[in-house]
Amino acid sequence: MDDPLSAIALTRQKLSALLRVIRFDKPIGTYLLLAPALWGLILASEGLPTPFLFFTFVVGAFVMRSAGCTANDLTDRKLDGFVERTRSRPLVTREVSVIEALCLLFGLLGLALWLVMQINWLTVQLSFIGVALTVIYPFMKRFTHLPQVILGMAFSWSIPMAFAAATETMPAGLWWLFLANLLWVMVYDTQYAMVDREDDIEVGIKSTAILFGEADTRIILGLQVLCLLCFVATGVSFNLGVIYFLSIAAVAAMFVRHQRLISDRSRETCFQAFNESKWIGLIVVVGLLGHYATLSV
pTM above 0.90? Predict the structure, then answer.
């Protein structure tokens, strides 16, 4: 008869490995995915969203980020072993099998579908596009140097979904916010890709960091400027006030700081710039909430 203690230990090891697949110990991806969803919910609700929608989108951000990480690890499992940062991932070390990872992925996508089915049919329809973008993204690194564009679309898709969930409408102004977030994703994910650039070139993984080459920091600066302009256009479209625009000024200051961090292109400082991006999402949330709080006074 098998030792029950050994069985418990094996179960714990498997659970630990599965949690590493979904990056449970690295929540920054959830923060970055949740931020635009909250922007959309606050704008659509003209203030605090309902507790139901807030809870649904917070859980949904965690679930979809976990699904995206799982899909990414499945797609890259034969390449991750050649990249310093990813060679210890569970699918590379075989702590998690392909079948187990597929079961995890389908379970997460099923949970995401159940969540949106609690809202309305328009949100459900939009969710299928979000799932498609999530699944397509990992393959784009094989065919184009612009996978960050697809990632930006995937991370920004929660914005129209938030409007659909809160108002069942999709006003034209939301697309300025969609574009602002897409550009922001391109900024921080290019910084992230700069960390792996040398390994990615050897393995054959494509990215904007490789495409931009020695012009990387200048192109990132251009993307940052365009992102700020789209944030301004969002404010104009939704008649937002001074507090919101002050938050965008704070985002501009963060962008300046990140330019300084990535100027030497070292792995450590590029990753630091990426990691600090979570504060940008929070700054915009505070600006939006501050705007609507002044209206209710």
Answer: yes
